[in-house]
């Protein structure tokens, strides 16, 4: 379990490494939240916005469980596709707040990309 959180921390460092992209995504998220809150479209029942986090947890879980099992290097990519499909589902399901759902999904996908990168390194044992 500690290794899972260590992988998550390493992926977060990747987000900080490419900070301009992260900053743009955060600004986009703040703007969309402001618009949806000011127009009173955002509700507490809009928790499906966080569904793509299941894909992120799956990616990190694969990196943890299959550590140094080189022939399964493709599993984090499958987890990223799962995360992408969940993101598309969320944006379609929450059409009323599509801007916020899209911004949250993009932030989660950005983090999931880094989680996949770290998980592939964990599985293959080739650390950069």
SSE string, helices as H and strands as E: HHHHH
Structural class: mainly alpha
Q: Which oligomeric state applies? A: single chain
Largest sheet: none
Got a strand count?
0
Distance between the termini: 23 Å
**What is the residue-mean pLDDT, rounded to a whole number?**
92
Whole-number radius of gyration? Answer: 16 Å
Shape: elongated
Low-confidence stretches: none
Please give the share of residues in helix. Answer: over 70%
- Beta-sheet strand percentage? under 5%
Task: Give me the number of helical elements.
Answer: 5
Number of domains: 1
Layout of helices and strands, plus pairs?
Blueprint: H1 2-17, H2 19-38, H3 53-65, H4 75-93, H5 98-124
Helix pairs in contact: 1-3, 1-5, 2-5, 3-4, 3-5, 4-5
Question: What structural keywords apply?
Answer:
5 helices; 128 residues; mainly alpha
Question: Can you walk me through this structure?
Answer:
- There is one protein chain.
- The chain is mainly α and 128 residues long.
- It has one domain (2-124).
- The chain is 74% helix and 0% strand.
- The protein has five helices and no strands.
- The protein is elongated.
- The model has no long low-confidence stretch (mean pLDDT 92).
